[in-house]
Amino acid sequence: QVQLQESGPGLVKPSQTLSLTCTVSGGSISSGSYYWSWIRQPAGKGLEWIGRIYTSGSTNYNPSLKSRVTISVDTSKNQFSLKLSSVTAADTAVYYCARERRVAGNYRTYYYYMDVWGKGTTVTVSS
Amino acid sequence: DIQMTQSPSTLSASVGDRVTITCRASQSISSWLAWYQQKPGKAPKLLIYKASSLESGVPSRFSGSGFGTEFTLTISSLQPDDFATYYCQQYNSFQYSFGQGTKLEIK
Asked: Nearest CA of chain B to the CA of A111: how many Å?
């Protein structure tokens, strides 16, 4: 079955750019009608959705982070990536990648929910 | 933005108990709600989608219900493995939002 694995630096300096990659195994990132998402969780706190990408390159971002976030996809490597610029200590968190599965609604609309998650990677912002 | 509010924040219960967690949305989200279970140091695990559809492989003691703005997750008979934190999440709007979590503790 599909598995996701996050990778990237565990320590980032304030004002720099956080860069993470999610590698998809057990299936092609391009197959099926899936979105691919990033979510984060500060220690002891709840979950915050960051944004998502379709394999066509179409993206949606959390408005609270939109000015600092870029999500991209590399189908040849079966990966998608997150860049978060101008980081501060408030960006310290466990970062998860996830697959979004599609379910049909009415009037040919579709809705997506996160069905497969990576194990998460801890990123600390500190000088 | 759609705000999701869970209650209670903490729930103490015993093995064998029936427990219910409530999730309220600040506006109607139809049935576009998922429930996740998270254990310490682990990623969230999908339990329920579309408010009441049980994810494959999830024990049948878990069930979800609700529509519009009020939803519930019920565990019919608590097992030791069920003590964890539970989150609801709306996906009616692609500006996804999660509840703050309900920690289910052993009494």
From this structure: 7
